[in-house]
Amino acid sequence: MNRDSDLANGQQGEQSPAPRRERARLVAGLILGGLGLAFALVNLRSVKVDWIVGSAHSPLILVVAVSVLIGVGIDRVAVSRARKRSKSPDA
Hints:
By secondary structure, the chain is of the alpha+beta class. It has two domains: 1-42; 45-91. Helix content is 75%, strand content 13%. A two-stranded antiparallel sheet has the order 1-2. The radius of gyration is 24 Å and the shape is flat.
């Protein structure tokens, strides 16, 4: 009986860090989302964007968001290629 209760207590101890980690991720995501929203609301001013051929006006937050997405895309491609190179056998 004591052994079963010890196992049950041990299993509860092993499972508790996962919900804490999930809650911490949720709180961090909400904080980052709130900061992103505040940043977006502050940067609604229209700015001039110069292209190679011409220019256009758009909200600053849109320019920042597109730049971040392009950077994330480049990073994902670079990481993917690096993993493929490290996994491929040397010839």
